[in-house]
């Protein structure tokens, strides 16, 4: 891949899902202060664009070493076929191809009703207790500080922990497992929005 394919690549895309239990909202991830990536992310126009650093020895960092612009698309969860997540990914890819002059206008999808929300900081919310998880919010939803996000209960109804949002923000990842353990990641939420 690194020696034979990347040397002839002009642009790269990396399509990912969340984990087996955690569902990601449709999003593009790019590094900060990269004008060309910002331009491509705006052309892709996913519901959310998240600034995140490259992880060492990842595909993104390898492309950066070779000066190849790369967009990382995240959406859905593994072992799951979500039509909406697939459509966001394919439509975004076609919009980028159109932006680069590689696709005729009649094959390009229309722009979404709203432009991508740019997120520069996020926070994970973890379970304080083990038990049955009952979600009270939807993926991609804006939550206000203090809003109920989930209940953790035991099977007998003798214990109930109400998890409330500690910050206002968009929910970009939700744990959809019916049962969670103390310390499990439950939600990924934005804590800072950028105007791009």
Brief descriptors of the model:
196 residues, alpha+beta, OB fold (Dihydrolipoamide Acetyltransferase, E2P), five-stranded mixed beta barrel, four-stranded antiparallel beta sheet, 3 helices, 38% strand, elongated
Describe the secondary-structure layout.
Elements: E1 12-18, E2 22-30, H1 35-44, E3 48-51, H2 59-65, E4 70-77, H3 83-99, E5 117-126, E6 131-135, E7 142-143, E8 148-153, E9 160-164, E10 169-175, E11 179-180, E12 185-194
Parallel strand pairs: 1-4, 2-3, 3-5
Antiparallel strand pairs: 2-4, 2-10, 5-12, 6-8, 6-11, 7-10, 8-9, 10-12
Overview of this protein structure:
With 196 residues, this protein is of the alpha+beta class. The protein has helices at residues 35-44, 59-65, 83-99, and strands at 12-18, 22-30, 48-51, 70-77, 117-126, 131-135, 142-143, 148-153, 160-164, 169-175, 179-180, 185-194. The protein folds into 2 domains: 6-115, no CATH class; 121-194, RNA polymerase II/Efflux pump adaptor protein, barrel-sandwich hybrid domain (OB fold (Dihydrolipoamide Acetyltransferase, E2P)). The strands form 2 sheets. Strands 2-3-5-12-10 form a 5-stranded mixed beta barrel. The chain has a 4-stranded antiparallel beta sheet with strand order 9-8-6-11, with no helix packed on it. The chain is elongated and about 60 Å long.
In short:
With 196 residues, the protein is of the alpha+beta class. Helices cover 17% and strands 38% of the residues. It folds into 2 domains: 6-115, no CATH class; 121-194, OB fold (Dihydrolipoamide Acetyltransferase, E2P) (Beta Barrel), CATH 2.40.50.100.
């Amino acid at each position: 891949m690194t020696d034979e394919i990347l040397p002839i690549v002009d642009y790269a895309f990396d399509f990912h899902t969340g984990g087996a239990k955690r569902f990601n909202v449709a999003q593009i991830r790019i590094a900060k202060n990269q004008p060309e990536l910002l331009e491509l992310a705006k052309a892709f126009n996913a519901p959310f664009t998240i600034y995140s650093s490259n992880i060492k020895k990842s595909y993104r960092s390898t492309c950066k070493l070779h000066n190849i612009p790369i967009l990382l698309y995240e959406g859905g969860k593994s072992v799951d076929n979500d039509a909406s997540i697939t459509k966001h990914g394919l439509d975004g890819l076609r919009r980028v191809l159109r932006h680069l002059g590689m696709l005729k206008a009649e094959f390009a999808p229309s722009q979404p009703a709203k432009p991508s929300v740019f997120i520069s900081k996020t926070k994970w919310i973890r379970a304080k207790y083990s038990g049955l998880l009952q979600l009270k919010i939807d993926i991609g939803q804006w939550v206000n500080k203090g809003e109920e996000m989930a209940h953790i209960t035991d099977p007998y109804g003798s214990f109930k922990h109400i998890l409330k949002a500690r910050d206002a923000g968009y929910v970009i990842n939700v744990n959809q497992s019916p049962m969670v353990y103390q310390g499990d990641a439950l939600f990924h939420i934005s804590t800072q929005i950028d105007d791009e």
